[in-house]
Fold these 2 entries.
Entry 1:
Amino acid sequence: MSESYREDETFNRNDFTQTPLPKAEYENCIFNHCNFAETDLSESKFIDCAFIGCNVSLAKINNTIFRDVKFKDCKMLGLRFDTCNAFGLSFTFDNCQLNHTSFYNTKIKKTIFKNSQLQETDFVNCDLNSSIFENCDLGRATFENTNIEKADFRTAYNYSIDPEINQIKRAKFSVLSVSGLLNKYDIEIEH
């Protein structure tokens, strides 16, 4: 099997800051508690892979392909998903720290964000149509010219979304946190 194609492999507790992950196509692979912090994953392909308990913070992901990738319990601070290969870009996030991450100008419809921190995350010009933000902290996340039509924010919190500069048709919000749509008016709302 070619070194540039790896399939059905499990990587346990590898420290890729010491020995870099070879640039390759990884299909149906599991990365379990691996350290990718500040490594260069550019030009690699991850298809149907799972990252569990990994630190991927500040990794370079220029032209990286993520297709049907699951991130669970991962630390992913400061990632630039806006530099990834846009073709087929798709992933889910469960219990991840995505603070200071950029999804600028990405088309990531139907993405599931679950129990995750998305503080100061950039969603400017992003297509999040039909995405789900289940129990997510969106404090100081930026939504501008963002498509959140049919997106579900019912259990999300700390968000501030201006309906006048975003597409929000048929998006779902809870009564308790709908004030996040009115922040720019500097009004007081009592429960």
Note: The mean pLDDT is 95.
Entry 2:
Amino acid sequence: MENFIEILRKTKLFSGVSKEEIRSMLNCLDARLYNYKKGDYVFRQGEHISHITVLVKGNLLIQKDDYWGNRAIVNNIAVGEMFGEAYISPESGHLLNDVVAVEDSSVIFFDVKRIITVCSSACRFHSMVVQNLFFSISEKNKKLVQKLGYISQRTTREKLIAYLSEESKKQNSSSFIIPFNRQQLADFLSVDRSAMSNELCKMREDGLLIFEKNKFTLL
């Protein structure tokens, strides 16, 4: 776990906390490291979870399959991002989605009760982590609102324009890489993959963009 302290220091959860302080908190927060192979489930729909988790290696997808096997991707989780915080309330109930490793990944689990219960010494950095947790939940809610904005568009082209425009702004460049392959992007935007691929080709012919795999350039 020592190898991932620098990554933890750069996360929103530990923003403003030094490496030495993080190191001293790992035992306090009952931090545990788990490794997953590509295709492994970190969590399954219906589970009850009591930990906040941080991805320190690899890539994960939050997804949901319906009864007939149709998949919807809720979001992707990149290195340094936190997940599971939506279920920290005792009334949150069971997990609504699956969390799956799309490549070999490592995840650190933190006992949520130990995070939100400040230790008896009331250390400054523990209080800061609680504050960071609140801000992170707020930011996650903002991202969900953004996704609603994408999928509420009426046509596949409008959904693509909304998503790609936002990615361009986020990465501050007209050329950028998205975290999805074609099928994952279609699942994320809730559209048919073939229809989306055809629309991307039409948008290229119309001079709106060029693309290669998951790299896009808006024109």
Note: The first helix runs from residue 5 to 9.
